[in-house]
TrEMBL record:
Its main location: membrane. Residues 39-302 form the G-protein coupled receptors family 1 profile domain. The keyword Thylakoid does not apply. The keyword Membrane applies. Belongs to the G-protein coupled receptor 1 family. GO terms for cellular component: plasma membrane. InterPro entries: GPCR_Rhodpsn (IPR000276), GPCR_Rhodpsn_7TM (IPR017452), Neurokn_rcpt (IPR001681). This is G-protein coupled receptors family 1 profile domain-containing protein. CDD domains: 7tmA_TACR. It is a multi-pass membrane protein. It comes from Manduca sexta (Tobacco hawkmoth). The lineage of its organism: Eukaryota, Metazoa, Ecdysozoa, Arthropoda, Hexapoda. GO terms for molecular function: tachykinin receptor activity. Pfam families: 7tm_1. The chain crosses the membrane at residues 23-48, 60-80, 100-118, 138-159, 191-213, 248-271, 283-305.
Amino acid sequence: MADCTSGPMPVYQSFILPWWRQVLWTVLFAGMVVVATVGNLVVIWIVLANKRMRSVTNYFLVNLSVADAMVSTLNVTFNFTYMLNSDWPFGHFYCKFCQFIAVLSISASVFTLLAISVDRYVAIMSPLRPRLGKRATLGITAAIWAWSSIISSPNLIYFTTETDFLPDGNVRRVCFSEWPDGITTRSHMEYVYNVMFMVLTYFMPIMAMTYAYSRVGVELWGSQSIGECTQRQLDNVKSKRRVVKMMIVVVVIFAVCWLPFHVYFVVTSYYPDVVNYPHIQEIYLGIYWLAMSNSMYNPIIYCWMNSKFRRGFKQFFWCCGALGGSGLTRHRAFGGDRLDRSMRSLSPSRKNGTSLFKTTKFMKNPPGSPHLLHANKINKHDSHFDA
């Protein structure tokens, strides 16, 4: 650790954006949190409140919605507040818990998507093979959360808080990771962990899902049956195609949302001077918003591409009086048909925004740079195929 008293003292910089930009970012994040939370809770309600919707794939969809709702309610708001104000007022325990929840929910989302892709692959490529039962599905779900907890456990161990006394007399609380071999951005152990996290929760799942859905797409669109098909067979193929289209949309959106986030951490690991860019705080806020916004897109996709979910959303808001009952009668059930297998993608970060960095004290770095959120410490550092 460098001695802050040796050499000339760099000028301390505040990390507070102008008020109007704070308002703009607050509106963007608040809107995302509300849409993600309400949307995913409605998806959970649609499946659990209707017995005919309780299929194998729909249990996986509920698991995805639980993970997305967790990250939007228990993580995003707190990390955004920290990034915006450069102060962590939520205490030592929640510093650990917030970062744990971030990685936990992201990992659970990705592995659930992967489980869905495997389930769809087996259902279409090997239709005579016995399918998962609900008990086996719940067992896989439990295993997903257990494995995700193991992956996120370092955050419970190594995240901590500290109080900084600033030259202007203000006091700032910081939440940062401190590994056995050094503070964040100075720790080789953390670098290895971040790379492994990126590989396990982004590149490997993307490659596996791309392969699975490519094979499924060839099977559904490229193969032609011999002889005459019945109308029921044609309808079955069409419903499967709709489901696969939805799954592809979910995976593509997931990949797009999370790619800049992972690239950012790789780039800053090799080129730390990137954090000196004048507008790095808002660049990172944009990257973080994009990654976290993935949690709000899946309910929108379900409602857009699945008539059963669309009807369920209408019924929910009708019950709440939001739609005045238009377009939906009181007695019309939306779970009577077999549900489309809508899927979704994951989600982010280190998964949170605060694994950001506690780095340099009194350094000339851009206000609110992600690496300076803890800043100014020099080198301290269907129940089968339901379609």
